[in-house]
Amino acid sequence: SVLRDPDTERFRIWYGVPESASQSHLATMESDDGVRWKRPHRVLDDPGRIQFGVSVLDDRGVDPDPERRYKYGWWDDGGLQIASSPDGLRWRRMAPGPVLRHNHDINHLYRDPIRNRYGACVSVYGPDPLWKGNRRATWHSVSDDLIRWSKPHRIVWPDARDGDGATEFYAVGGVLARGELLFAFARVLRDDLPAEPGGPVAGLGYSQLVWSRDGRTWVRERTPFLDRNPVPGTWD
To answer: Whole-model pTM?
Structure first.
């Protein structure tokens, strides 16, 4: 997660650093311009065991308790875990375990200012009559307090219109409110394709745009909105 602090006008990033293949820790850095980051990074004390995932909100002006200005969501023990912090550095659990159960290790928290509530886009991995084998799809839930969540429902999934038999989604993130709409990015995963023509089939990804008028039903645009860099050998 990358946020701009309205007090300092600096950018702040929170991300995971590995402990092992099944555990990570929370780290942070700051930047004046969002491009050049001040190092070394700082590894923070974990609020609990972290398997994967970093989704941070700045609730300044929303939560009246300054000790809970920042909210942090991650995945461990079969679901979304929640912590809060006064400064984005010292974190404390808001619940003793998962507040929203789902079986895959990606989740994204956001604040819906139109409806004055929180939302979560979470990844679910499994079979369905629409596809062969197991695939990743995105489910959605809403909450007034980050602790009690509505029953999740599926919002982004592969279907016959994708036509390839291999499309799946690494969840949905980057939710933004613009007027009466919510916009977000669906992260497409294609493990069946080579990154370069004729190269090894190691997979590639890109982002499609999704949007919602009611905060519950989402429409996915099929064409890439943020495509990968076409230059071979580049970072993405």
So the answer is: 0.93
